[in-house]
Amino acid sequence: MQPLLIDLSIAALALLVFVADLLMPSEEKRGLGHLASAGLVLILLLTFVLDMQGDAFGGAYVLDPLALWFKRVFLLAGALAALIALDPAEQAFARRQGEYYLLLLLSLLGMSILSSARELLLIVVSFELMSLPLYVLTAFTKSSKLSGEGALKFYLVGATSLAITLFGLSLVFGATGTTMLPEIAANAGAIRSPLLVLGVLTTLAGLAFKIGAVPFHMWVPDTYEGAATPFVGFLAVAPKAAGFALLVRLYLVAFAPLSVRFQPALLALCVLTLVVGNVLALTQTNIKRLLAYSGIAQIGYMMVGLLAQTGEGVGMLLFYLAAYLFTNVGAFAVVCAVGAASGSDDIRAYRGLSRRNPALALAMLVFLLSLGGIPFVAGFWAKMGIFIAAWHAGLHWLVLLGAGLAVVGVYYYLRIARSLYLDDPEEGAQPITIGAPLRLALIVCGTAVVLIGIWPRPWFDTALDAAKSFLH
Amino acid sequence: MNEIQFCLLLAVALFSIGIYGLLTRRNAIGILLSIELMANAVNINLVAFSRVHGGAAGQVFALFAIALTVAEVAIGLGLVILMARTRKSINVDEARDLHG
Predict the structure, then answer these.
(1) Which pLDDT score, from 0 to 100, does residue A470 have?
(2) Are A149 and B95 inside 8 Å of each other by CB?
(3) Which of chain B's residues have a Cβ under 8 Å away from the Cβ of A146?
(4) Which one of A121, A171, A289 has the shortest CB-CB distance to B45?
(5) Contact predicate A30/A90, CB 8 Å
């Protein structure tokens, strides 16, 4: 029972929100957001207090330090997403707020189980539990044409990727005769069947869709642009992290004996993702699309950590995910505030933001610096760690390519940062006021980004510990 | 050709027809049907492999896969209805307000 405690608590919280939604009068539904957010923070604290590590269901489910790290990322992303959504949800869909938080929690539950799953069937079921609520949440602003279009594109790509992943996994099952990942890892080296290689590669293509790696990325910018902004911060972080949890468990553990076969494919995906993400971000004029392409580029950097195939690489990947969580959720929270005040996600709306709300401009500056990887904010150590791990693993040219493209990234992030402070606001622009929940989320994200930047040591150590305990 | 090879060929053929439909169909319902074909190719695979290896794992997997696909299609149809309401059309080529 112990190892399941976190997931059971998330499930209980989801049911609590569901029942409370039915019982509450519609004027008080805002309380559901508080309940969801506070509940997730409580569960997060629980993960630090109790020692729950172990496995369940004959090894199909495991709570190891790796799973624990991912669960904390998900819980934090969920709590922040619920907090950011409080005000916009009240305005856009006051009566349906309960459903919003319920779906968010259910998706979170799926991710949380996925990070612990060590059996193919459990992986597939939790993968779907994660994905299905996300499609609905993307389409949540029913009256908006864009929201529906973004959701349909997301859905069609997601459903296709599931079918492709399932096809790959069915071949893996066919070749190995088992659905348990530890058994697959033990047998994979001895099996000479082409079915296994085909299955491993097909599964990789399916998962590449999910994390938005190039050339399977087309849905990402459209979905981000169409979906409601408070939700995009969550969508940009949590499902990607879940995708990496699965990639680590499948490709660095279960299929590790076959690494010669899939390494070139993974490398090609990584290089394409780095190049295309960074280059296409240069021409964007909509902030959500720009962050979407920048997100694709970040996925590329994380894949570099995966390619290192060492404990150090995975540790740096975990560290990157934590830094990415605070930076991206924070950046989208700013986009949310500016979008609500000026009714536009165009980059021009950010001109002279420092004169409309200095604190908001400062927060955005911190997040942009972190995204660009400027020293002494979280993003710098994240990129640095990934590059050092890859260098140790002998991927020298990949590190040089990544560093070169990071410079391209700095250009498009600093272009916005400059316009925050040096340009004049558009005519008739009013000062921006933000509500207390959003302010709290921004303070948490901003402080974390700066703190990790100034004092990264404890984060590095925990991340490396979490990775070491399972990669040999 | 033994029966397992036949099953695998059938599954690959179904999967390929699904991908072809996915790429050529412009009607949202047609695309959903194509994805359904791909998902069912997986089920044939699973049941066939289950017969090779013995045990019930593959068959249980297939049953779960069927239930998951149904849940997924329910949401897909909801999104298609949403599109029909906001755009008066379910041709995916007409959904192109998002670009750049």
Answers:
(1) 67
(2) yes
(3) 97-98
(4) A171
(5) yes
Task: Look at residue A440 and tell me whether its pLDDT is greater than 90.
Answer: yes
Evaluate whether A131 touches A180 at the Cβ level (below 8 Å): no
Domain boundaries, chain B: 3-97
- Cα separation, B60 vs B49, in Å, equals 12
Of A218, A214, A216, A174, give the one whose Cα is nearest residue A194: A174
Q: Tell me how many residue pairs between chain A and chain B have CB atoms under 8 A apart.
A: 120
pTM over 0.80? The answer is yes
Residues B17-35 pLDDT 10s = 999 999 999 899 999 999 9
Nearest to B86 among A148, A159, A222 (CB): A148
The per-residue DSSP string of A293-329 comes to HHHHHHHHHHHHHHHT-SHHHHHHHHHHHHHHHHHHH
* The CATH number, out of the four listed (1.10.287.3510, 3.40.1080.10, 2.120.10.10, 1.10.150.20), of the domain defined by the range B3-97: 1.10.287.3510
Q: What is the ipTM of this complex?
A: 0.95
Our CA angle for A86, A91, A95, nearest 5°, is 85
* pLDDT value for A433: 87
